[in-house]
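Colleagues,

Please find the record for the two-part complex below.
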Amino acid sequence: VTTHLDVEPPVAELRGPPGFGRPLDGEALVSSDPFSPRYDLDRSTGLISRKGHSIEGHNIAGKILVIPAVKGGVAAGWAFYDLMRRGIAPAAIVCRETNPVFVQGAVLAGVPILHRLDPDPVTSIRTGDRVRVDPASGSVVVLRSGG
Amino acid sequence: MAGTDLKLAAEEEAMLAGEHGELVQWAIQMQVDVGRFFGAERLVPVTSAHMVGDMEVMGEPGLALLRKIAKGGAKFSVPMTTNARCVDFAAAERLLQDPGMVCKEKELIAAVRAIGAIQTDTCINYQTVYQPHFGEHVAWGDTGTVIYANSVLGARSNFESGPAAFAAGITGRTPCYGFHLPEQRRGTVLVQLSADLEDLADWGALGAVIGRQCNDYWQAPVIEGADPGSATSDRMKHLGASLASYGSLAMFHLVGVTPEAASVEAAFGGREPERVIRVDDDAIADVYASYPADRDEIDLVVLTGPQLSLFEIKLVAELLDGRSVHGNTRFIITTNQMTHAAASALGHVQAIERAGGMVLVGVCFYLMGADVMRERFGWRNILTNSAKLANIIGGYRYHPIFRRTRDCVEAAVAGRLQ
């Protein structure tokens, strides 16, 4: 639907197994640290609040959140639903590796999620990039924005 | 790509088509989505589900969702037990817990009971409620319960968070991937243990050493070198809870002890270890050293995470030995209603309460609005024998100090670390 993707050639195309959720495009927020919605996030604002986290101070609301791994216990199972209902969930999640709890949470909330992509999303996507995710085909297309 | 080839039985197709009602359809749709994501080829029947649904993680929207479901009149189709919760109603006022949270907790309990949950409020269901047998498929939520079921009992479960365990309770099934499959259960990392482990806390420390180096749900460490005679249920409970907390791990093998680890070779099932982790006495000492005291005086001593067994409560009563808890220190332990009843009948609860300690029922300390209690009581530091609690409670801005059980009880009596 966006003309942006139609006129500029992608800088990267990532492929992996089918993920979950509807296709969409948005702006990437890339973390080099693993992510826990319980321990790293201010759950009232969507801001990354953990001191020293690689995306401390960034807001995940509406972003395509790109992370190397997930951490924490079963809290993620409810956390995305809570964030979604309050309008501060990420638009989609792209992980190098994930775990059942994180995916259960994303499915409950209807947040698209993909994993095990090649090349590595954490190094091939940059914060601010325009990204299109298509979970059904396991594809992530990256357009660099703003030079 | 492969991985989407999930085949449903006729009854499951009917559930997905909505023939068993909207709620069943919603539940099985979530399971199909999660199953496809992880390449499950089928759903597998489960004999029980265990649900984590505390207000702290669910939030208001999660509670609203449960209320709506409870009104729909649906019931769980397999036994559904509940995990430790946030409030012991008999102690909430004394602990200055937020009345709003107490209220919501009541509503939450009413909703899950209306759907047919068995309100056990425990994270040690495997010690007190139900022990699945070798190869039995279950859908359990709390990470400590899952790692114990997989590792010690040889049962089969993934981490099933609140909504996922809920869905399994409704459909009586779960997607068959991860630790339901033999190939996922084989060892990946070899742990060569040369440390002497005595206290429960030492076993938790072992979990911390491994989990810090091996933080990945899909790993299964194989621990060799433990004296099989030393591996009691309570010790493996602390080991498992700590591995799950520090490493998000869902399975370990203890060679010569756990049922899929008759030998190192059996535990790896023909695989080569990806790497070797060595754990000696220094490594265990380093875990204690990573939680140093901020000062000698101790505000709070808490034994929890997991809840205490009957043996642990008896031990605490014996260590107190008729002495009283220091006036400037709070001493709190948590257990479930079954163990509390037994320990009361035996006089251990009374002994601990006479000493000035609190024995809380159906809760785990860090779920109780720990930050609010800290502010209201002016607590700063917390001493515990639980490596798991030490790992988590810093997030609620306590200064965690991790020591052996006897040191914790002595500090409660003296009001300071000895």
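The beta strands of chain A are 12-15, 24-30, 41-42, 47-48, 64-67, 92-95, 113-115, 130-134, 139-143.

Comments are welcome before we finalize the supplementary table.
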